[in-house]
Design a protein that fits this description.
With 381 residues, this protein is of the alpha/beta class. It has helices at residues 17-31, 50-59, 76-94, 106-117, 137-147, 158-165, 179-187, 194-199, 219-222, 225-241, 250-258, 262-266, 278-287, 296-305, 320-323, 334-347, 362-380, and strands at 8-14, 37-43, 67-68, 98-102, 121-127, 151-154, 173-175, 212-215, 244-247, 270-273, 290-293, 309-311, 327-329. The strands form 2 sheets. A 7-stranded parallel beta sheet has the order 3-2-1-4-5-6-7, with helices on both faces. It has a 6-stranded parallel beta sheet with strand order 10-9-8-11-12-13, with helices on both faces. Helix 2 links the parallel strand 2 and strand 3. The chain binds uridine-diphosphate-N-acetylglucosamine.
C-alpha cells in the first residue's frame, strides 16, 4: 500500500477471555496508525460478565467494542450459529476489507466463516497450532479457520509445517511471534503484586514454601465427574506440600457443584477464588513455584516468565513450550502428576528459554505484513 491509499478497513473480532490479551496489542498498533488502518472491534459476547470480560478490557486498555453481538452462552451449535446470524448484518453494513480473528474459540470460526462466504478476506492470528486431538472443540475451530483464511500469522515455526501439511500455500503463512506475549511484556511492570492478591483470597494460608497456581476448565477435564474427582483428589494431596491458588472458571465451578465435589476441596489447602483479572494472575504466576493448568495461554505465559508449568492434558497444540520452554505435559494420571510435581519441587523444574520472536513486537510485525499484503493485492487487482 502506498501512503496515499485509503486506510485498510479492518474488523477485529473478540469473543472469549483468551482473545482479549491477543487483541489488545493489535488494536493499540492499528489505532496508533490511523492513516493506514481503520480498525473496528466487534465483541461477540461469548464471554460477557465482569470477571470474564470487563476486567480485561479495563486492565488491558482495550477500546470499548464498536459492536457487541451479545450472544452469551449456549451449546456449541447454538453459540456458533447465533454469532453467525448476528454477525452477517454487521458485515453487510460495514463492508470491511478484512476480518481479523484470533485464537481458536467458537467466535473465531463463526466470524471467519461468515466473512469468507461474503468474499471478505480473513486474517487469522495464532494460526497453525495443532494438538492432533479432534476431540477438543478448539482443534476443530483451528483447522477450519485456517482452511478459510487468506493470511495466516503463526507464533512458532511448527505452525507453518502443520499448515502446509494441510495444503495451505506457503506464501499465505507468516511467522510473526506471539501477540499474547506482547501483552505479557507490556504489562509485566504493571502486574499486581502476588502478596496483594493472596491477601484478598479468603482461605489462603501463607506458607514459607511459597505457593502454586492451579487452573482447570477444559471440558475433557471438568465435564466428566469421574475425571474431575480424580484430578481434584490428587491436587488436594499436592496442596499438602504447597498451597495452591485456584481461580475458578465458571464452567468448572458449575461442574464441581453439580458433581457434589465441593467437600473434596473444603478441608484442603487449595484456595478457590473467582476468575482473576489479567494483572492479578500475571503477578501471581510470576511469583509461583509451579503452575498446574489445562489452559493453552498459561503454557505460553509460564514459558515467557520462566516458571515451571505442569499441563494436565494428554497433548498440547503449543509444543514449543515443551521443547524450549518450562512446560511438561503430564495428562491426568495421578501418579504422573505427583511425579512431575515432586520433580519440580526438588529441582525447580526445567530451565527453558524464550522462543524466537516472543519479543513483544508481534503486533507490529502483523501490522507491517498486513499493509504489504494489502498493497500487493491492490496491485494484482
Ligand atoms: C471458551 C473457549 C475455550 C477457552 C475458554 C476460556 C470455545 C469452544 N471454548 O470455553 O477455548 O479456553 O473459553 O475461558 O470457544 N460463563 C460465565 N460468564 C461468562 C462466560 C461464560 O459464567 O462471561 C459460563 C457459562 O455458564 C457458560 C460456561 O461459562 O456456559 C462456559 O462458557 P463457554 O463460552 O461456553 O465456554 P468456555 O468453557 O468458557
Amino acid at each position: 500500500m502506498t501512503r496515499s491509499d485509503p486506510p485498510l478497513r479492518l474488523l477485529c473480532i473478540v469473543g472469549a477471555r483468551p482473545n482479549f490479551m491477543k487483541i489488545a496489542p493489535l488494536m493499540r498498533v492499528f489505532r496508533a496508525r490511523p492513516d493506514r488502518f481503520d480498525a473496528r472491534l466487534v465483541h461477540t459476547g461469548q464471554h460477557y460478565d465482569e470477571a470474564m470480560k470487563d476486567a480485561f478490557f479495563r486492565q488491558l486498555h482495550i477500546p470499548e467494542p464498536d459492536i457487541d453481538l451479545g450472544v452469551g452462552s449456549g451449546s456449541h451449535a447454538v453459540q456458533t450459529a447465533e454469532i453467525m446470524r448476528r454477525f452477517e448484518p454487521v458485515l453487510d453494513d460495514l463492508q470491511p476489507d478484512v476480518v481479523l480473528v484470533v485464537g481458536d474459540v467458537n467466535s473465531t470460526i463463526a466470524c471467519a466463516l461468515v466473512a469468507t462466504k461474503k468474499g471478505i478476506a480473513v486474517v487469522h492470528v495464532e494460526a497453525g497450532l495443532r494438538s492432533g486431538d479432534r476431540g477438543m472443540p478448539e482443534e476443530i475451530n483451528r483447522v477450519l479457520t485456517d482452511q478459510i483464511s487468506d493470511l495466516l500469522f503463526t507464533t512458532e515455526a511448527d505452525g507453518a509445517t502443520n499448515l502446509m501439511r494441510e495444503g495451505i500455500a506457503a506464501d499465505r503463512i507468516h511467522f510473526v511471534g506471539n501477540v499474547m506475549i506482547d501483552t505479557l511484556l507490556a504489562n509485566r511492570e504493571r502486574a499486581i503484586p502476588a502478596e496483594e492478591t493472596l491477601g484478598g483470597i479468603a482461605g489462603f494460608a501463607g506458607d514459607p514454601a511459597g505457593f502454586g497456581v492451579l487452573t482447570l476448565h477444559r471440558p475433557s477435564n471438568v465435564d466428566d465427574p469421574v475425571v474431575l474427582r480424580r484430578l481434584l483428589e490428587v491436587l488436594v494431596q499436592l496442596s499438602e506440600r504447597l498451597p495452591l491458588v485456584f481461580p475458578i472458571h465458571p464452567r468448572t465451578r458449575g461442574r464441581i457443584a453439580d458433581a457434589g465435589l465441593s467437600p473434596v476441596l473444603a478441608a484442603s489447602r487449595i484456595a478457590l477464588t473467582d476468575p482473576l483479572g489479567y494483572l492479578q494472575l500475571l503477578g501471581l504466576m510470576a511469583k509461583a513455584r509451579i503452575v498446574l493448568t489445562d489452559s493453552g495461554g498459561l503454557q505460553e505465559e509460564t514459558t515467557a516468565l520462566g516458571i515451571p508449568c505442569v499441563t494436565l492434558r494428554e497433548n498440547t497444540e503449543r509444543p514449543i513450550t515443551v521443547e524450549q520452554g518450562t512446560n511438561t505435559i503430564v495428562g491426568t494420571d495421578p501418579a504422573k502428576i505427583k511425579d512431575c510435581f515432586d520433580e519440580v519441587m526438588a529441582s525447580g523444574g526445567k530451565s527453558g528459554r524464550v522462543p524466537e520472536l516472543w519479543d513483544g513486537q508481534a503486533a507490529e510485525r502483523i501490522a507491517d505484513t498486513l499493509l504489504a499484503w494489502a498493497g500487493s493485492r491492490a496491485e494484482a487487482a
